[in-house]
Amino acid sequence: MATSRLAIIDLSERPRLGFKGRGTLSAMQKRGMVVENQPNRAFRQANGSLCLVLAASEVFLLGAGDGDDSALAKLEADWRIEDGERTYPMPRRHSHAWFAVQGEAAPDMFSKLCAIDFRPHRFDDLSIAQTSVARLNAIVLRADVEDRLTYHALADSASAVYLLACLEDAAEEFGGSMTDASVLAPLPITRRSSS
Q1: Residues 149-187: pLDDT tens digits?
Q2: What's the CATH code of the domain at 66?
Q3: Residue 29: domain span
Q4: Distances (CA, A) of 137 to 7, 114, 129, 155, 171
Q5: Gene3D superfamilies this protein is in (predicted)?
Q6: Rounded average pLDDT over 3-15
Q7: What whole-number distance in Å separates Cα of residue 17 and Cα of residue 91?
Q8: How many angstroms separate the CA atoms of 147 and 145, rounded?
Q9: How many separate domains does the chain show?
């Protein structure tokens, strides 16, 4: 990977949304989303957003890097119980904090906080781990930005300050620090095959 510097980015201001229910995947496909029944896998969308399949009945949508939340807002606004699609929206903007960690040392940094092996040869691009990070239930997604190794950590927003402190503490050993989201722009930018 080209980026050796370790950067932590707070993306909690960016749009995100979830859907859950037996008919979720078909409802997302009906709306033109690229998604398959592959739990713990993410799918890049044409507008730059990501669809994380957490289970056959649950997705977590991360908005595009430009911060435009219109696509997710439309998905939520267009949902109607009368349609009987067996899915319902789960607002995630307020339930989950969102941090990105970028750089070659990211897997080593995460090894101080989590038992999952996030090294690139063990944890593919667009892979998801639903795990514990710093003793918090968390979702960790690898979604590389060009040739830069990039991980996203999503956890309970009530614990955001704690999680950020843990990330910063773990990153310190590797010269990591907080930075702004410009290092990710645009996010994600490489649209590779999801298989």
Answers
A1: 999 999 999 999 999 999 999 999 999 999 887 766 544
A2: 3.30.70.1400
A3: 16-91
A4: 22, 11, 10, 6, 20
A5: Probable tRNA modification gtpase trme, domain 1
A6: 85
A7: 5
A8: 6
A9: 2
